[in-house]
Amino acid sequence: MGIPSKYNANEVESKWYEYWMKNNYFHSEVDEREPYTIVIPPPNVTGVLHMGHMLNNTIQDVLIRRARLLGKNACWVPGTDHASIATEAKVVAKLKEEGINKNDLTREEFLKHAFDWKDKYGGIILEQLKKLGASCDWERTKFTMDDDMSEAVIKVFVDLYNKGLIYRGYRMVNWDPEAKTTLSDEEVIYEERQGNLYYLQYDIVGSDEKVTIATTRPETILGDTAICINPKDERYTHLKGKKAIVPLCNREIPIIEDDYVDLEFGTGCLKVTPAHDENDKVLGDKHALEVIDIFNEDASLNSFGLHYQGKDRFVVRKEISKELEEKGYLVKNEQHTNKVGTSERTKAVIEPRLSDQWFLKMEDLAKPALESVFGEGRDVKLYPRKFENTYRHWMENIRDWNISRQLWWGQQIPAFYYGDGKEDFVVAETKEEAVKLAWKKTNDYEITAEDLKQDPDVLDTWFSSWLWPMSVFDGIRNPENKEIKYYYPTNDLVTGPDILFFWVARMIIAGYEYKDARPFENVYLTGLVRDKQRRKMSKQLGNSPDALKLIEEFGADGVRVGLLLSSAAGNDLLFDEALCQQGKGLSNKIWSAFYLTTLWEVSEDIEQPKHSKLAIDWYKAKFQKALESIEDNYSKYRLSDSLMTMYKLIINDFCGWLLEIIKPAYQQPIDKKTYDEVIAIFEDNLRILHPFMPFITEEIWHSISDRSVEEALIVAKYPELTKYDDKLISDFDFATEVVSGIRTIRKDKNIAFKESIELSVINNESVTTEYDEVIKKLVNASEISYVEEKIDGASFRVKSNEYFIPISVDSIDVEEEIKKITEELNYTEGFLKSVQKKLANERFVNNAPDQVVANERKKEADAVAKIETLKASLANLK
């Protein structure tokens, strides 16, 4: 069966992916080669492929495929993250649809449902990545709740606890009332929202006096336990030691003094609600205030909520403000903009809440991770460097990490309680070890495993994924195993800047704590994929295209090229399907170029023409210059620039010039030397293109000749950088300008290509005549002669060289030509007048910089010369 004239991506891509998988090209084992390792940012097990995944994983695949071509032992470890909050929410919703309430299940029953759900839906995104061409080592696929991965997490928790770095504390935390769990500070997104500022009056006990406070949350007055004034505020000095009455609930609360209150802000009186505000909690501790929590875990009001009990906080806000107004407590309200914390996962408004939680001390742990980015060696490099300031700010202002979550899906905290007190617990990897520790701690050898109750909370998902570069190679449980020693540290990490702290910084921290080494050398931070209007892609906006449909329409290669053509590191990508169409167009152009070579008859009996030799020598030099630029951009993680260099090389230089020069005349054979050299050049093009366009390059590679498994393009040798003659390139560039000038005249004068022309040159530039054969071939010139004087005919310049083509009046449309020249003459004469008017202005000539005046005089001279030429051309035609 012959080579088809059209490229069909849908037929080709599945064929070659199966071939790569069947021959185990993606798999890596420890050997003597230099390792090149990437660990995938594990997508949520709940996820499906979206544009951000497409961009991120295309970049990773480019890097890993290039490493293979460079002869390195390339290992790309895939996997998924259990995503505690998101996955538990999905499982709870699914159970609800089936009429099952999570609270009616035991933990074990719920986890069975969760694992069933994970087994059914958890691998979808990884399967979709295969459609994109991702060459991951699928045999190494990991899940953050695999038994060995969970064991590593528990081991680290116990170790950090024994080092005194993990502690349990009663703290104000960020509470997500939808997920019903605490969040770390980094999981809270602050948004500016329009609300109201309510001015409320509190009666003073034993007096007709009232004080006014301003609050954005009138519902929280039910948890007030003090009013605070500044001791220096003369307006309220007389209230010292008195009590106020909380509206509606009529509870008496003390009036306290503290210089925390800003004299200039609001009314100068501050309501203190220690259970529902972090700053209020500090005041409450300082002044030994009562703590009244008015919310249930879903942010509905509890028994302290009076007749609002059971109602949602936002419903209560509307209703209580109305009641306060009706009863004369609400003085006024006004519009007010403030920052509201929302959950990154559920988008619910966060509630500050007092709770017993587990924390990890971060200050000392963070120091090596800060040094790794800013120390002398820059052990970890961020690309682009603009993100270093963000990293520094986070790491220098780091707070203790709240690592416990009130969920069932995740690694259960290995703390075991044996008594009634908060301190009656031990921390151990297993229950058996916990029993022994409890004996040691209490001297009560009657304690059994049944007496121990494990903490019901699970660990923050990031507490498992911060170990990812180590745990995927079993580097926590078996720190001296051959794989962790060989593959760690990894080389490159590709991820988004939105998780620079969540994940990247924490992996660096863990790497230095457990391996005393960086987890990776380079961090390539991609931008966000946005639509043409710069909006973030989202299902709600309906602006996020179906990734698999894009692959179906444009081919995986086309989509990969489309994504990367305008995806500079760290900058947002404004996605447009036209980019994928451009990628598909490149596929078609490459295929057409290959198809053209299959149509040629190859002859061993003819010599290589001079123009073919020149063109091949030129292209080899041009290729090396392009490769130099490509490799430089790779080193700076400017993959879009590398791709654009390849794009221009293939479209302009290979297809536009080289093939045009060397292709034989119609129905004539091509000499074997030229053919072999062009095919070798084509193969080099395929080698550099393969990381970006793996499918079409592998297809053409095998269509050129039968290859063994060892000779497949995926494991071929990458082209080496060699010296090249830059003069070859500059001389050829000059020749292409000559060709373009002649083609323009042919087009303007309607001279058919089959009509041979003669070319005369005044060689003021002393240009080599080496490329005359190339020029003659490309423009169908029978002769190129070098002259001293101008000759009649059409002319053009390249630098100071003048080129003349004699044109007989019979060969052109005289009337049309006169009309065209007259229009150009009129325009040039008008332009000359405007320049001369400017030069006649003494103020301009005397005050403008010398260079500006010189430029204007040059414009005048050029216009005068052009008018002279145009008039001469008209005279010849009349």
Q: Ends: how far apart?
A: 61 Å
Task: Give the second-level CATH assignment, the architecture of the domain at 547-724.
Answer: Orthogonal Bundle
Identify low-pLDDT runs: none
- Find the CATH topology of the domain at 547-724: Isoleucyl-tRNA Synthetase, Domain 1
Relative strand content: 15-25%
What does this structure look like?
This protein is an alpha/beta fold and 878 residues long. Among the domains are: 181-351, Valyl/Leucyl/Isoleucyl-tRNA synthetase, editing domain (Isoleucyl-tRNA Synthetase, domain 2, Alpha-Beta Complex); 547-724, Isoleucyl-tRNA Synthetase, Domain 1 (Orthogonal Bundle), CATH 1.10.730.10; 756-877, Valyl-tRNA synthetase, C-terminal domain (Helix Hairpins, Orthogonal Bundle), CATH 1.10.287. The protein is 44% helix and 17% strand. It contains 26 helices and 31 strands. The strands form ten sheets. Strands 7, 8, 9, 10, 11, 12 and 13 form a seven-stranded mixed sheet that branches. Strands 6-5-14-16 form a four-stranded antiparallel sheet. The protein has a four-stranded mixed sheet with strand order 29-28-31-30, covered by helices on one side. Helix 18 (610-635) packs antiparallel against helix 19 and helix 18 (610-635) crosses helix 23 (772-779). The radius of gyration is 37 Å and the shape is globular. The model has no long low-confidence stretch (mean pLDDT 91).
What would you say about this model in short?
Helices cover 44% and strands 17% of the residues.
What attributes does this structure have?
single chain, 878 residues, alpha/beta, Isoleucyl-tRNA Synthetase, domain 2, Isoleucyl-tRNA Synthetase, Domain 1, Helix Hairpins, 7-stranded mixed sheet, 4-stranded antiparallel sheet, 26 helices, 44% helix, 17% strand
